[in-house]
Design a protein that fits this description.
It is a single chain. With about 325 residues, the protein is α/β, with parallel strands linked by helices. The chain has two domains: about 80 residues, no CATH class; about 240 residues, Rossmann fold. The protein is built from ten helices and twelve strands. The strands form three sheets. A seven-stranded mixed sheet has the order 3-2-1-4-8-9-11, sandwiched between helices. The chain has a three-stranded antiparallel sheet with strand order 5-6-7. A two-stranded antiparallel sheet has the order 10-12. Helix 1 packs parallel to helix 10. The two termini are about 35 Å apart.
Amino acid sequence: MTSGRRTALLIAALALAPFTGARGQGGGTHLLIVTGLSGEPRYAREFAEAAARLVDAARSRWGVADSSLIYLAEDPAADRARISGRATSAEIAVALKRLALRSAPGDIVFLALLGHGSGEGAASRIGLPGPDLSARELAERLAPFEGRILVVLNAASGSGDFLPALSGRGRVVITATKSAMERNATTFAGPFTKGLADGEADADKDGRVTLLEAFLYARREVARVYESDGRLLTEHAQLDDNGDQKGSAEPGGAQADGTLARQIAFGLRPLIVSSDPRVAALDKERRALESAVAELRLRKATMDSVSYERELERLVTALAEKTRELRELEAKNP
């Protein structure tokens, strides 16, 4: 298959059926959200709004199974429909063990930390009810996720020193600040979660938002807010996805970082709800193919070009055909 034909097929298929999650449906995507100590009511509201966006998107558009979706908060009673438990260090450890057992190599595991931070280096930490969680402790707890595609967002103040502690192969680490010295309350979580969950960061309008798109969108929005308020920018978000323990403010382009973050995408298409079991079955099959295409793209660097292109052609052709069948059936049963 020629490069032009392969590209045309891929674009056509993705235009018909954009990805619905980091790797598609069900067990392939796992999400743990933690909102730490807020200190003030306005921060509690900001943390809760950002967390709710992720939970709602995971349920309605990303296809994350309820058993793979955990939200731990400072006050579980504040939103019982979404919150799974209290955001203590012990509960986070239990949640991570649960996701480590549920996930498999190649799965996406997304950990989002929202709150206030303090400390320096590996002792840098996020404030929680009870003992805080340090970067060193979190790094140890993430060891069982070897082989998974691990995404860690630390949107807390002073979060920058988490990046070198968590950096590793097959990981995307995003922090709201460049270092632990940037200790003012951050605004990064709001635009990042909004861009990722609501689609505002979908720069190429392909129906899915990559982590790279969400990161770049959030950085621009943060800068815009500070400028409109006439304030000096006190938070400089960083992204590392090549395991060198060094973050990039502008990943992609000439920067070394951004390759993996560009491949991990979250879809905007809602789940299809139909009383016709044939529609549900076809949609399930299509989502499985979407997941397979996404996984293949992540494995491209480990495959020879001929095998990669042959498998990509097979999957994309099947995906386009499945999408056509689904649309025809939906048209007959409006």
